[in-house]
């Protein structure tokens, strides 16, 4: 019986050693694998986030705005909602749109006439921009670039712009829904 008991005890110890070895290997894999998996998931999230925001930034990278210190500040509203870039949408009177623009007079960009890609919100028909500026955006779609030609009033308040014709290259970034 002693031989048999010894043999069973050896088998049991061998089984325990194999079990310990498997646990050690599993622990090692988990200690290495979990941080690697976390890094991969984080990298994927960053890439997805960058890809989803690149569509919005591409359309506004080369844009600019009008000086907010002038009389025609284009008081804008922050609706707190997000704008839609669905190109099937059309700018209509009363819509709130997000735009970028670059203004030029005699082919030269003027100080403050550029949003620098930051985007600005505008309620179409509010009259907060120079006469006819907003009307010329009606019918545009998100992603469209529109040339808006306006004449600054004689009493605009910025001497070098008073009474001058300006051309604004306007990009419609989105329409608030």
UniProtKB/TrEMBL annotation:
One of its GO terms (cellular component) is cytoplasm. Residues 1-20, 53-90 are annotated as: Disordered. Its main location: cytoplasm. Gene3D superfamilies: 3.10.50.40. Its EC number is 5.2.1.8. InterPro entries: PPIase_dom_sf, PPIase_FKBP_dom. It is found in: Cytoplasm. The keyword Lyase does not apply. It catalyses: [protein]-peptidylproline (omega=180) = [protein]-peptidylproline (omega=0). Residues 1-14 have a biased composition (Basic and acidic residues). It is an enzyme of class 5 (isomerase). GO terms for molecular function: peptidyl-prolyl cis-trans isomerase activity. It holds the Pfam family FKBP_C. Residues 66-90 have a biased composition (Low complexity). PROSITE patterns: FKBP_PPIASE. Residues 94-177 form the PPIase FKBP-type domain. One of its GO terms (biological process) is cell division. SUPFAM superfamilies: FKBP-like. This is Peptidyl-prolyl cis-trans isomerase. It comes from Merdimonas faecis.
